[in-house]
Inverse folding.
């Protein structure tokens, strides 16, 4: 993903200060991920760049437990998440496509796909393939 210039980061920080969600800001700037916007707005990246830095708990008191595509941080739709999770090959005992391939196809970061597959996100789907790992083969003696 490209690195935003300082003017864009200041713009993001001002939008966040005005109450825009990081996902909304990322949708306004399709070349950047929600994670990038969040990191720059919180000052985890580019701390010396101008503009108001957000508090980590800026949504305190709001419903931060919204799940799936209702979450303000969601980068995937329900159908996209299910397509990724349905990609398990029972016969080969592994994922058919790599997480990086899915990330490129869906325009998200690979970590978004890996967290989905591990079951760290979208837990409420209760999908049987979340948390699946290929079984390790036995070593020959």
């Amino acid at each position: 993903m490209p690195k935003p210039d300082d003017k864009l980061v200041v713009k993001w920080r001002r939008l966040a200060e005005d109450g825009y969600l990081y996902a909304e800001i990322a949708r306004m700037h399709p070349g950047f991920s929600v994670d990038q916007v969040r990191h720059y707005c919180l000052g985890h990246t580019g701390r010396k760049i101008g503009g108001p830095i957000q508090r980590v708990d800026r949504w305190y008191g709001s419903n931060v437990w919204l799940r799936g595509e209702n979450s303000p941080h969601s980068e995937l739709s329900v159908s996209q998440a299910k397509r990724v999770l349905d990609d398990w090959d029972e016969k080969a005992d592994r994922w058919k496509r790599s997480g990086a391939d899915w990330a490129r196809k869906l325009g998200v970061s690979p970590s978004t796909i890996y967290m989905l597959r591990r079951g760290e996100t979208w837990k409420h789907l209760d999908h049987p393939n979340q948390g699946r790992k290929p079984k390790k083969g036995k070593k020959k003696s």
About this structure: Residues 61-65 have pLDDT under 50 and may be disordered. The first strand starts at residue 88 and ends at 89. The chain has six helices and two strands. Residues 9 and 40 are 7 Å apart (CA to CA).
